Amino acid sequence: MKIIEKPADWPADEATAIAVQDELRTRVVLDEPGPPPSSGLVTGVDVAYDDERDVVAAAAVVLDAVTLDVVEEATAVGRVAFPYVPGLLAFREIPTVMAALASLTRDPGLVVCDGYGRAHPRRFGLAAHLGVLTGLPVIGVAKNPFVFTHAELGPRRGDVAALLADDGEEVGRALRTQDGVKPVYVSVGHRTGLDNACAHILALTPRYRLPESTRRADRLCRRALIEATA
DNA sequence: GCGACAG
DNA sequence: ATCTTGTCGC
Q: Reduced to 3 DSSP states, what percent helix, strand and coil does chain A have, rounded to the nearest 5?
């Protein structure tokens, strides 16, 4: 399979990457509610790394939002496009993620990715970045609160608490997806509302803490990395 | 000034 | 993200 290289104009240092974020962030659309939950298609994306070989594998798995059945899968393998810097995660993996999305034969519908959208130091995390570059509705789901804080939330599935920035803005939501488990952190990326995003994530977590979409994508990209590395 | 810090 | 054994629990 072809190796996805980073674009020729890809940022080479942190200062340039931050400048790119500050330019692209103006194109995020936040006033659309997005697709209603439990309808249409939902596509999970995830990546796996082999830092030794500088390789990243991305997977996109399309699910039927009602049955959660897999409708289509796609993978792409690329070169790691940027070092890991908190706040600049998107620059590592976006070219390869976009290649995986582009090789799908149908519209991905709503995209769910690991990490953050608006819950980001400059309000432009991976989910927002991916949304602006693809034009698709995207939401971000992370496993920890990063630099943000939230009040304690109830112990039951569906309980929520606002994820707050220093200035008091609600940049996302801590959402309990199963009774008694650690919450996940949901934030909108592009062309979706926070209420809708949380409803989608609840619909995608009938059994486990993490959405079915990311669990499927996680397994697939790990498999793709092993096959590409072998 | 020094850490901490999505994946 | 990734490196990794056993262990607790449904």
A: 30, 25, 45
Whether the CB of A146 is less than 7 Å away from nucleic strand B comes out as: yes
Scanning every strand, the nucleotide with its C1' closest to A143's CA turns out to be B6
Q: What's the one-letter identity of residue A174?
A: A
| 3-state DSSP assignment of residue A43 | strand
CATH, range A3-229: 3.30.2170.10
10-residue averages of pLDDT along chain A (230 residues) = 93 96 97 92 97 95 96 97 95 98 98 96 97 98 92 93 92 95 96 97 95 96 93
The C-alpha R_g of chain A, in whole angstroms, comes to: 17
Edge-to-edge, what's the strand order for the sheet holding A138-142? A3-4, A70-79, A55-64, A41-50, A110-114, A138-142, A184-190, A170-175, A160-164
Helix (H) or strand (E) holding A142: strand A138-142
| CB of A149 nearer than 7 A to strand B | no
Rounded-to-integer distance, Cα A197 and Cα A187, Å: 7
- State the pLDDT at residue A210: 96
Residue A112 DSSP SS3: strand
CA distance to A25, A34, A82, A83, A98, per residue, from A14 (Å): 16, 32, 9, 9, 21
